[in-house]
Amino acid sequence: MLSPSQLDSLASLVGAKALRTDEESRQNYGRDWTRVYEPNPAAVVLPSSIEEVQAVVRWACDEQVALVPSGGRSGLSAGAVAANGELVIAMDRMNAISDFDATDRTVRCEAGVVTAQLQAFAEAQGLFYPVDFASSGSSQIGGNIATNAGGIKVIRYGMTRDWVAGLKVVTGTGELLDLNRGLIKNNAGYDLRHLMIGSEGTLGLIVEATMRLEAQPAERAVMVLGTPDMASIMEVLRAFRDRVRLEAFEFFSEEALAKVIEHQGLSRPFATATAYYALLEFEKPDDAAETAAMECFEHCVESGWVEDGVMSQSLAQATSLWRLREDISETIARWTPYKNDISTTVARVPSLLTEVEEIVSANYPGFEIIWFGHIGDGNVHLNILKPDAMPMEEFQTRCGAVSQGVFESVARHGGSISAEHGVGLLKKPYLGFSRGEAEIRLMAQLKRVFDPAGIMNPGKMLDA
Predict the structure, then answer these.
(1) What is the pTM for the complete model shown?
(2) Domains of the chain (ranges plus CATH)?
(3) Which of 15, 52, 251, 333 is the most exposed place for a label (fewest CB within 10 A)?
(4) Chain centroid to CA 275: how far?
(5) Is residue 301 packed enough to be buried (19+ CB in 10 Å), middle (13-18) or exposed (0-12)?
(6) H helices present in 212-348, as ranges
(7) pLDDT averaged over every residue in the chain
């Protein structure tokens, strides 16, 4: 833990009110949405400027104190957990939006800007920030960039990476990097901006970002379709992708839907219960788009891929249908699920899921399994719910042993063990299934370049 003199020196850098050592703050800022590790930070600092962040990092270098960055703490891989007496550096007070440029459609955000805050700002300018997910009301832009967050609209708009025009990053030595400066074309050497995106705070602290915005899409409609099996969902994806402009294509299982209906007070989308459901959103600029979607629906029913379905007739109904998918994570959180966030190319999804289903069925008898995910971009979430009576350590051990087989299957299909949740602590033992030995060695060398004292989120992603 930190000594009284160290706490005094920290307070002199950020102000006494921005230094917290009380148990409530330490518990709140020392964890993310995972509940595997008990938070135990030494203290929490909430800087209000880039200069204060630099000062704290330099202090940490001198004192050899490890730093853990904290954004909205909505991560699912324990990347923001401070369990070993680290100093948490939270970006909540750095939440200003400035320098909007209508010509370039860019805006400057401090790291603590909440995703929904940026979305609302864009809408007020008649524009659109398309990266979206269930935690948009709490996740912060800095954390989104540090984990390269994806979400529900990747099929059309890509990942967070695709919307970052510039970055300011404080390295492990306290040096400030100003990367790309909002340029569209810039081939002057290495683009270190992209190295920082997805680095999970292990190379530096993201303190500011210049984000791109997009024109508002046309009116959108949402459909929920019931399918008899996973293979049918892929047929539905192919059929609709050829006929309408998809904004999102999600899926979830009957088990997931049943949990949401029971615990969130929602209604079934239609009377028929099916094994799986596809939720798709598409642009509806005119009546022709809606007609094409209905013709595609009828084709899918005739082909046996869809058993029932519904299309939104209002914004309120569209929002209600989306809740069936977006409320899943919040609903199942009470069971402390073991999450596998896996991906492969869209074409290989059916064969990967067939293999994984066999592994799951053989190894999880009696466990509740919840499937959902962004199947339109090849990303599926496998959630194993912890039985109430089973100790957490036993549950994690059993799931971890089975994950070996799941990740071997992912590797055979050329996929990723972490499609969008990052590596953190939970996925670190399995990194070799997605990255080769040479890649991991170079990653460790890069960390030493940007963080020679080894203080930036140590133990996350890499052991180096």
Answers:
(1) 0.94
(2) 4-92 (3.30.43.10), 97-215 (3.30.465.10), 220-329 (3.30.70.2190), 336-433 (3.30.70.2740)
(3) 333
(4) 26
(5) middle
(6) 230-241, 254-264, 287-302, 315-326, 328-332
(7) 95
